[in-house]
Design a protein that fits this description.
Blueprint: H1 3-18, H2 40-51, H3 55-70, H4 81-96, H5 103-110, H6 114-127, H7 136-145, E1 157-159, E2 163-165
Antiparallel strand pairs: 1-2
Amino acid sequence: MSETHGTVAVLATLIERLLQDELHHQITKFHAMKPPQITIKAYLERIEKYANCSPSCFVVSLIYIDRLCQHSVMSLSLLNVHRILITAVCVAAKFLDDSYYPNLFYSQLGGIPLKELNNLEVEFLFGLNFALHVSPHEYNRYHSGLNPHSSRLPAYALDQTNGATF
């Protein structure tokens, strides 16, 4: 099993644990009308297979998602998680990786129109206040929590109003 595949599997499990009930959500641009048919794990595996992102890209995507949920009223749900994931990976790949695909590729990979992904990317960046830098300490904290060779998932505390807190 590759490092990326192991990280993606653990990330999918973690994201599924962080999903919250749809009734407690403020509707955002990331919300779909109905949940996609694809599971979170299968969606992340699809992204991993075709996007050729570095393993670090998935760790940084999680950091961005956590920041977004902590600094807004948004929380993860089945209606928004897929759009948030593809946007986070797209932004992380652009910030981290030497080579990455254009937004058209990510929109097709994610199953959303290009115009929508462009709008989500802008919304995502403003939600992060354009704070894309990740310190080595912060990266290592998240990476160790997603280590697929660890015997268990870390104990993540979930704050119902602000998303995940690591």
